[in-house]
Amino acid sequence: MRFEGLDLNLLIALDAILEERSVMAASRRLHLSQPAMSAAIGRLRHYFNDDIFTISQRKLVPTPLAQSLERPTRDILLRIRANLISVPRFEAANSQRRFRIVVSDYASMVLMHPVMKRVYQSAPGISFELFPFNDRVHDQLQRGDVDFVIVPDVDVLDGHPKQYLFADEFCCVAWTGSRKVGRSVSLSRYLQLGHVTAQFGPTRRAAFEERALVKLGYKRRIEVVAPNFTTMATMVIGTDRVATMHERLAVLFARNFPLKLLRAPVRISGFREILQWPASFHSDPALVWMREIISDVAAEIDRTPAAKMTFG
Fold it and tell me: Could you give all domains of the chain from N- to C-terminal order, each with its CATH number?
C-alpha cells in the first residue's frame, strides 16, 4: 500500500531499524533476509533523500531526520494496530489469543499460576508468553509489543494505565536443619550470616530487599547471587545461609521444601504489585477481559493472609 508515494511497509522496516539499532536484528525481527532488508533501507534512503543512518565505531547511528521520524512512525503503527487490526468483539471461549506478559517469577507463581488455571477452565485456546524484566520494558509497553507488565509499585512505568493488584511483605527463610538459625534471628546474627539475594536483567539490578537494606545503611555478606526469587529460596537448603524474600512466595516454598520462615529483624517496607498495559490498547476487548480476570484473582490473593497462601 502506498500513501503519497511511500510504501507503508517501509515504515515497518524503519521502525524495526530504529528500535533495534541493527540491520541484522531488524531483519530477524521482521523475518526478512539481509538482502531484502538492505533493499528496504535503500528505498527509504531514496524516498527521504537521506542516509537514514550511518555507521560509527561499528554502531548504527540514526541521522537527525531518522531520529525525528522515530516517534511519529511508532505512533502511526500503533494507531493502525489499535484501530484497524484489533478485533471489535472478543469471544474468549473460542479465542486463540496469546497474551504476552512481562512478570517476575514471584508474581508468576503467586498470581499468574491461578490466573492461567482460571483462564484454562473457561477459554482453553488462550495461551500465554511470559517474559522476564529487561532494560527495554518501557519501550515494549509503549510499542504494544507486550500486553501487560506486572511490577511492584516502586517500579511503576510512567505514561500507561495502572491498576492495584495485591500487597505483600518481606520475611526471612532458612533451612530447617540449620544450627545457626533458630525460630527467630536477631539483627546482629542476621548481619553475620551469609545471605542469598537475586539480581536481574543485563544490568544485574539488585533485588528490592537489597536496595532497601542498603538505603537503611545495613551491609550484608552476600554469598550467593541467584537469577530469580524462586532460586533464592532453594539456595539456602543444606546451609546456614538466609534469604530475605516475599512472604507470600516464601509460604508456598515452606510447604514443599525443608524451609522455615522467620520475621525479618529489619523493617523493610511492604509493597504493592501493579498491573500496567499499553495506553494505546486500553479499550482492546481482549485486554479488558484479561484485566478483569487478573483483577479478580488478585483481589482474592489480597484478602488471603500470607500464612494461608496455597499454590494455584
Answer: 2-85 (1.10.10.10), 92-167+271-308 (3.40.190.10), 170-262 (3.40.190.10)
Q: What is the pLDDT tens value at each position of the chain, 312 positions in all? A: 444 556 667 777 888 887 778 778 888 877 778 788 888 888 888 888 888 888 776 677 888 888 887 777 777 776 666 665 555 678 899 999 999 999 999 999 999 999 999 999 999 999 999 998 877 777 777 777 899 999 999 888 888 899 999 999 999 999 999 989 988 999 999 999 999 999 887 778 888 888 888 888 989 999 999 999 989 999 999 999 999 999 999 999 999 899 999 999 988 888 999 999 988 777 788 999 999 999 999 999 999 999 888 876
Measured distance CA(69)–CA(228) in Å, rounded: 38
Could you give the C-alpha distances from 4 to 15, 72, 81, 141, in angstroms and in order?
Answer: 19, 16, 20, 30
CB 152 within 8 A of CB 273: yes
Amino acid at 137: V
Reduced to 3 states (helix: H, G, I; strand: E, B; else coil), residue 214 is: helix
Whole-prediction pTM:
0.74
Q: Which residue has the cell 504476552?
A: 100
Cα–Cα distances in Å, from 186 out to 26, 70, 181, 182, 269? 54, 55, 10, 10, 18
Taking the C-alpha atoms of residue 271 and residue 167, their distance in angstroms, rounded to an integer, is: 6
